């Protein structure tokens, strides 16, 4: 889409030019680089400069645009000052499902560049907040051709709207010794299983999956995913005693930096030997993070499944909370698929418009939700049992006391 | 406009490419069999496999908003130094995967030359996760990229060095929709509106469904105007400026240059290390939108970082440090004013009221 003409050419951008200065990578330089012979980028600069002058945005509400047969993956975007900036009158975004773990070859990266030079502004986000490759800025007539070039190159669109949003995962087993399950494989397999739910929105609202292979949660799963899968282990932390000694000899104050900071005081150091009271370990990762050569997660690995995280809209932000305290790594795919079917059925039945699963659980209460999806309550699901006496005995399931 | 090459058959629902196609051969060979890793210098990691293989990672910041021109340069660097293999991180950094440690310095020099600094590991400030802002969003209360650029220019050395007490993660969202994990960051910069929506009745009649609009308000602040077929009014005192109504109905205009601005939140985290994941809490309720470099926001963020760096203990994240010293001391050390806005009055508000006599004097 690199033709020129009928646009404004390079606009004056006195305010934005200030953001070319300084040592941090400059997005203004990036837009200017892409604007060589591309009037859409020039008009983007012009409109952005206007926003900087007036201190307000100039994009209109999204419209319904997309590719044939999909209900998502494209964010319609229109300028509210199209007479001034005709080349961004339509400036839609395509969300492209990233490869798991955000791994690329230079060839794959160039393929994306080629498509976006032919069909868009040449601007991208590597990556968007949810994880997609974001291709910023094109017109309606380019959507379908860009989409076909992408699918023939092995890429597909991500999610948008009230649908499964593009799942994402940490680097996992590809380059991390702490991976307690294969986050990339699970992310890839589930993404393929839910293509229809991703491309054709049919839910009350968005639904996000995020897979972190250990409790360090590099993918912010617990803060951002409706369904959070976070790796952990059940047995003893693996220890290499010689390496513990090496850390101590190298000057690590094990008592101060490891034992004193253990949240459940499960680690003890007598100056010679490190002892871990494994049944009291909460699997926080601190000791392992500090001594990666000496300590590793146990061998009986799997994940915790948590549910319900979301940003503030509408009733306030939520963190995910425990739904299944432990699933063995090899059973994760099957367990998740079965669980997700039941969760979506419940959400479909009881969720209101724009109600995330976490807010639905807040509204009906976790006990009713558990009944609805057929899960037994477990003490791991709460930080403490209730402290108020208003128990709804009438809702106790038939046959129970 | 160049033409698309003719496609043999329309393809849909092919899903993402399989990651294995793009995995570095050493990552593939040691998949699930990594033993440990070390941080050799800021931005340089060495992962050691049980096989004894060593994979070196060089991490560099990007602008997140990247031109295809820059991506091609990055692809060129990957060809030259890492066998054509690279990846991106969840914080928009690029990572080159090297088998030859001798190439690290040369790659770092070329990255620096291109304007992509190497760092972001261990106890540094990694790249700011952020949203689109005025570049591409309809509901933005502020820009995103511009503030991030201004803040990181001032915190550049915190990216390229690892001398903070612990990790420090900053995120920015340009409205309360929060397309980023802003609500669980050590420091969160959040764009906010402060005025109720202005109802544009011409747009309302044409583009909005009234019952959906009324139902969209979490506080019930929107009601139909009695006797009028297609009109609504906003009960101003009940509005919390979330913009949810605007998302379902473009007639509910939120933008207001003088009243839109930024708020600063602190002490959130997502990792389970030591303490449980936590939300960020309000530090500064409002700072003005002041492009192009938002000096008030930069000053507030740098202040928090400096006070944290000077007072926190090793490994403490911002929230853990504040938990230890107490919020009164945080406000005293930073000089931020504690106001009525800091006290929660939304749902579950009581959970944040002090319910003990554990007070530090």
Count of strand segments of chain B: 15
Round the mean pLDDT of chain B to the nearest integer and report it.
94
Oligomeric state of this protein: heterodimer
Number of helices of chain B: 11
- Unreliable segments of chain B (pLDDT under 50, ≥5 consecutive)? none
Q: What is the succession of H and E elements of chain A?
A: HHHEEEEEHEEHEHHEHEEHHEEHEEEHHH
The first-to-last residue Cα distance of chain A is 69 Å
End-to-end CA span of chain B: 70 Å
Q: Which strand-content bin applies to the residues of chain A?
A: 5-15%
Whole-number radius of gyration of chain B? 24 Å
Q: What's the helix-strand series of chain B? A: HEEEEHEEHEHHEEEHHEEHEEEHHH
Task: Tell me roughly what share of residues is in helical segments of chain B.
Answer: 25-40%
- Taking strands numbered 1, 2, ... along the chain, how are they ordered across the largest sheet of chain B? 1-2-3-6-5
The main pleated sheet of chain B reads as: 5 strands, antiparallel
Tell me the number of strands of chain A: 16
Strand portion of chain B:
15-25%
Give a short summary of the structure.
With 401 residues, chain A is of the alpha+beta class. In chain A, 32% of the residues lie in helices and 15% in strands. Chain B is α+β, with helices and mostly antiparallel strands and 361 residues long.
Describe this structure in words.
Chain A contains 14 helices and 16 strands. Chain A is an alpha+beta fold. In chain A, the strands form 5 sheets. A 5-stranded mixed β-sheet of chain A has the order 8-9-10-15-16. In chain A, helix 4 packs antiparallel against helix 5. The longest helix of chain A is centred in the C-terminal third of the chain and has 19 residues, at 332-350. In chain B, a hairpin with a 5-residue loop joins strand 5 and strand 6. Chain B has helices at 25-29, 68-81, 104-114, 145-154, 156-160, 201-207, 210-216, 244-248, 295-311, 318-325, 327-334, and strands at 34-41, 44-49, 54-60, 65-67, 85-88, 94-98, 129-130, 170-173, 187-192, 198-199, 222-224, 232-234, 252-253, 261-266, 281-288. Chain B is globular, with a radius of gyration of 24 Å. Chain B is α+β, with helices and mostly antiparallel strands. At the A-B interface, helix 2, helix 3, strand 1, strand 5 and helix 4 of A face strand 1, strand 4, helix 2, strand 5 and strand 7 of B.
